[in-house]
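Our consortium's second objective concerns turning raw sequence data into structural hypotheses that experimental partners can test. To show how far this objective has progressed, the report includes one record in full. It was chosen at random from the queue rather than selected for favorable results. The single chain below, 375 residues long, was entered without modification.
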Amino acid sequence: MSAASIVLGLSPGALKEALLAVGIPQKAAAMRTRQLWNWIYVHGARDFAAMTNLAKDFREAMAARFSLARPDVVTEQVSADGTRKWLLRGEGGQEFETVFIPEPGRGTLCVSSQVGCTLNCRFCHTGTQKLVRNLTAGEIVGQVMAARDALGDWPSTGENRRITNVVMMGMGEPLYNFENVKAALAIVADGDALALSKRRVTLSTAGVVPMIGRAGTEIGSALAISLHAVRDDIRDRLVPLNKKYPLKELLDACRAYPGLSNARRITFEYVMLRGVNDSLAEARELVRRIAGIPAKINLIPFNPWTGAPYECSDWAQIEKFAEIVNRAGYASPVRTPRGRDIMAACGQLKSESVKQRAGERMAQLRSAELARMPS
């Protein structure tokens, strides 16, 4: 990243203050802020020289003081099903992943909020990577912009956009990086910026109960809950955060989510693990637990990764589970695994540098073992 001040992620007010701080006159600052905002977020300008309706001396002054850099794209992988995964490098060289999932009539971008994660959910590959740091607001919104660059998806207000939905379901727990996520999603949902309506933005949490109400009030996006179990003893193992915020507290917070209605339902995510949480009794308990909450349930076939302690439920069992939930009046689509061949499916994300170091360690161990073997 450039040593110049990074503009991405600043609110309009903060951008105006930055301009004032470098000598832009008060009378001109508001207009300049609007012009820069439009070039950066509507047109995706990557440098000030591209802003051709601004005076050349102003553009040169901005380029000398500010940077429009997105996170750097380290690698791009494309799945056989069209899913794309980018490994991005942010400030300080840390890496994180972003995934684009194309579907007929829509395209969903899965965005990360942290490098690594603190939650250690046992079925999740990201949870095996220790938390390095929170991503900045600029790095979060920069993921959307880097994806738009790669997809040729500018201007942001144009018709037939490829990215139609953003989900905070990548690496990390968004509610443990609340202020930066809030700032980034304000830009994503700004009609004069990245221009996605709040109903097309979803924030997923493993259940940071004290922050759920604030998310509804201050961010206003759709809410998804990584539920995955209907008994505290099982959820304690799968999602250790449950020990701090057990199911009753979590579901009470869901019932109180601001703006909750049949038109604004909560999505409960439920990964299907063979012999762990997939019994028909648990399907019936799920229905009982969420009674009264406008909701849909996404049933997620477990996506395997090397060393994972679980296996995916049998397809017939998933269908029986879904039937019980459907009969109770809840939509329960079974999420089709996407991007498995490039480790881009739900629960599979992990920084490539970490995977590479782990692979190198395994190779070193194998070499040492071979060296100890008699010839």
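The partners drew two points from this record. The two ends are 50 Å apart (CA to CA). The chain has two domains: 5-67, 72-357. Both points have been shared with the crystallography group to help prioritize constructs.
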